[in-house]
Amino acid sequence: MSGFFKNKVTATIRFAVMVALFVVMPSPAQSQSQSFEQIAVGASHICALDGEGRVECTTTSTAQRFLPPEDLPPMSKIVAGQQHSCGITLDGNVLCWGEDVFGVLQPPTFDAPVASIASGFNHVCAIDINNVTQCWGLGSNDQLDVPDVPGGFVKVAAARTASCGIDTAGDVHCWTTDSFFNPDGPIAGPFVDIAIDSNQACGITGNGDIECWAARERQNLFPPTNGPYIDLTVTNSAICGLRGDQLLDCSFAAPTLFELDTRAEEYPLDVRFSSIERSNFQFGGVPICGIRADNGSISCFGSNPSDNFSGSLPAPPGSSPMAAAITASNFILGLTAEVYSRNQVELFWNRVPNVFPPISVEVYRDDELLTTTRNSLSFYDNDDSVTSEESRYRIRTVDDAGNVGEFSNLIVVNRATAEVSLADSEGGGIPGADDLLRIRDVSVTAFAQFVANNDSFILTWSLDNPSSVPVAGFEIRINNEPSAFVTSSTTTFVGDGVDLNFCRIYSVAAVADDGTILDYGSAAFGNSAIVCPR
Length: 534
Prior knowledge:
Strand order of the largest sheet: 27-26-29-30-31
CATH superfamily of the largest domain: Regulator of chromosome condensation 1/beta-lactamase-inhibitor protein II
Helix content: under 10%
Number of domains: 2
CATH architecture of the largest domain: 7 Propeller
Distance between the termini: 15 Å
Oligomer: single chain
Radius of gyration: 28 Å
C-alpha cells in the first residue's frame, strides 16, 4: 500500500453547504392550469392554441423574435418550424411570424379558405377547402413542387427536405429529390394520417394501424402494433401513436452516438393525451410534446433538457409560474475543491437544477472572472499559466436575463501542498465547519494486486461527523463519470472492468436526499507510478 500512498493526490474537503432555493409561490388564480387544444413545437419555441383561438407561445431568452405579434387574431390551427410559426385564421387565411428565412413568413395567395397546414424545418405547406396545395419557404430539394394529383390532397406533412400528402383516394405522394421518401412512387393506402421526419415516414391506415414505408439508418425501428391509433408522430429515434384510449404507445431505436438513450420508461405511457407533436429540432434526442386529455395542459418528453442538442426547448405555455419565478438570484452555492496536481484543480458545488431561464455559474479566481459555465456541479481548472502558490476561488449563479446570485463561500487552494481551506470574506474560518460531515482518507487499491490482467479495485473512505446531516448514499465516479451509487451504510466499494494500468481519478461523494453533494473526496490511482504520477 505504501506505493499507492506515494501516488495518491487528494485534498480533503472540509465543509458542506446546503443549497438554499427560494421560490415565489403563485397566487391561486395563477396556479390554475390553462387548457389547450393544439400544440406546435419548434426548435426553441412552443406555441399552443386554446378553445377560443388564442395563441400563447414560449421561447428561450435568446429567441424572443419567435414570439407572435400582440395583435395576432384568433386561429383555428397552428404549426411551427425551426424559427417560425404559422396559423390559419378563423376566416381561412394564413399568417406566419418569427424569423423570415427563405421567405417562410410570406405565404402565397389562396383562392379559397385554407383548411390544413403543416411545417417542415424551413418550409410550410397548406391545403385549401378545394384540396389545392401550395408550399413556400426553402425549396432546396423540390419540397415546394406540389405534384398534380387527380382530386388534390386532403392532408399534408413536411420534414426538413420533403413534403408528403394524402390524396383523395388515401394514397401518399411525396415531392422531394430525396428518394428515401419515394422508394417506388406513391404509397398505396388508404391512409388517414401521415407523419414524416428526416429519417422516418409513417402513416395511420384506415383501420388504425401504423405503417411505415421508409426508415433511414434505423432498420431496427419498427412501428408499434397495439392499435388502433388516432394520432401519430415520428422522430429520428421513435415512432409514437395515440391509441383509441388516448394512451401513448411508442417503439424505439437504439441510440446513435449523438443521441440520448431513449427508453420507453422515460415516456409517460400512463398519461392520456388528446394529441402529440414532435419538435422541429433535427439532431440528438428530438422532444415530443402532448396535450393532456384530463386538463388540457402540456407535457414534453423524449429528451434530456441538459442535453446540448435538445435542451433548447423552453417550459411550455401554461406551465406553473413557480418554474418561471426561479432565477439565478434564488440560489446560494457552496464551493469545494480537489487538487490533483499543481495546475489541476477541480471545483465542485451543489447541483444547479435545469430551469428556464437557464442558470449558469460564474467562476472567479483571485477575484477575476475565470469562466462562465453551464456545468451543473463542477469546473476543471487546468490553467498552466498560473505561477502563484495560492489561489482563491468563489462562484455565483447568473442567468440569461442578467440576474445574479450571492457569492459562494471563499476557498483557498495551496497549489504546492494540495491543501484546500475555507475562508470567509475576511479570510477567516467558517464557524462550525469542524462539526460538518467530512469524507476522509479516500484510497484505492487493486483487488488482487499481484494477479495479471486484474481489472478490479477497492475504493475505501472514512467519515467524520456522520450523524451531522442525513446521507442518502454515496456516488462513485471514475474520471468524473458516474459509476455506481451505494448506500449510506458502507464506506467501501468494489468495482471492476477498469484497466488499472492507466491513471484515473476515483471519487466518492456523500449525497443528501435532495441530491445535494454534502462532501467530496478523490484519489488518483494506477498500477504504474509512471502513468499515475503524484
